[in-house]
Design a protein that fits this description.
The chain is 38% helix and 16% strand. The chain is of the alpha+beta class and 527 residues long. It has an 8-stranded mixed β-barrel. A hairpin with an 8-residue loop joins strand 11 and strand 12. Helix 2 packs antiparallel against helix 3, helix 2 crosses helix 12 and helix 8 runs antiparallel to helix 12. The protein is globular.
Length: 527
Amino acid sequence: MKGYRAVVGLWLLLCLVIGPASASSWQDEPEARLQLHQQGLELALADVHPKLTLWWQQAVSADTASDEADDRLLLGMQAFWRHWAALSFVDRQHLRTAGASLAFREQDQLELQLAAEQRQRHVLVQGLAPGYPDHPQLQQQLARLLALNAGPWPVLRTATLRPGDRVAVVSHIRERLRLLGDMQAEDESSLSVASDEREKPDGTYSSSPVDDAEVFDDGALHQAGQTAPVGVGPSHDPDLFDEAMEQGIRHFQQRHGLRVDGVIGPQTFGWLDMAPQQRAQLLMRSMLRTLIGDNLPSSYLLVNIPEYRLRLYQEQVMVLESDVIVGRDERKTPIMHSKITNVVLNPPWNVPRSIIKKDIVPKLYRDPGYIARQGFEVLDGAGVVPAAEWQARLYNGGGFPYRLRQKPGALNALGAYKFHLPNNDAIYLHDTPSRRLFSRDSRALSSGCVRVEGAEQLAHWLLSEQWSPERLAALKASRVTRWLRVAQPLPVFMVYWPGWLGGDGLPRYRSDIYEFDKTLHNPFTAG
């Protein structure tokens, strides 16, 4: 909305020079009214404020629709976006908007009155549009999902299915894949599995018709007007889990961050059975979170927590991607905005007190040798505490009032690189020796910090102005701890986006691992 106020001011000046006219109805500007209702629907789906949802319901309901209802919706949305502009980065990620006052400003009411007299409401509605780079595709996908939601969406979950299986539910899974965009009909071009589901949106998707949705008949599923999917000929067995459907399942799994194996297990069934409206709401809430600031720096690091993915942008162009491991639910990685100021090479690990108490001390009662094997030093104010001393105190009921520090080396939990972020939560990014964990599709495993699979590449990029790869390799091999200053501190945004649009226009989804969106109100019901 930057620059919009100046444009409106110029337009108001022209209106005053021309002089007043008779106020028109919203019905005289159908396109502006349609866009107002569409944008109101988006905010209602995102469940950002109960008043906005109510005002949208009143504006679109045949029983309550009126010019006054449309005016109220527009003024309410203007108030909402003013509130949004004042929110911090963290508050935007948490969608802390339900408590906004949404007070109407006299200036906004005057502008609306003049717009009505000049039949220029579309100017105000256009000014409400948020800065999604892919807004048309978003609106298309929301319309698609809500059309699917109007029909039945029965649960398909059954025992695990593998290619070659022949069961009745296969035909219904195939149809659901087609409705969601992961398979195409026989007369359409063959399915092309995206090579990188993380590509930024740059295209649209042609929606499939929704008049052939699944229906029930005396408790039995069947398709009404079903179009044959890819590879289906006249003699095709609809209950066979064939190669074309396996391809569709793999595409579906890729879009949802699942293990891409073509097998329909509990997690794949869970996403297949998710109601279209729930998909629309999760997508809309995530898209709001992508509005992280009015001005992004030219170079920055973005960590999408539920995606377990890191992206580095240089001059607004992505130059590095990496899988990451984030905090488990009881030790969440926080939403935060900071900067990488230093790369610590061969860092020691100063173990947080919470980890000592919850994780390490219980192990010591069972395995006193754990400390020495893992390369830990036990410390107090005077220095290193001998093993006999701390063991005597611990096993005689005196507790473990010591600090722990893990020396640099192959076993060090931080690996070879630590990326220092000034913050109050002792959160940072770092390398890890546990490389096998990156192969998991669910990677909420850490104690809050972010483990980076591509830590070495990130370190080289951050230090490239001062240090050659050869010098860094020599320092790393020495196992001596070095704090290396980054020439230009790199902004870091840790975001929470469990949904977004891919380059093909289709939504991508990830699990709501911290349950930010667990309880959402249905915008199509009263109250």
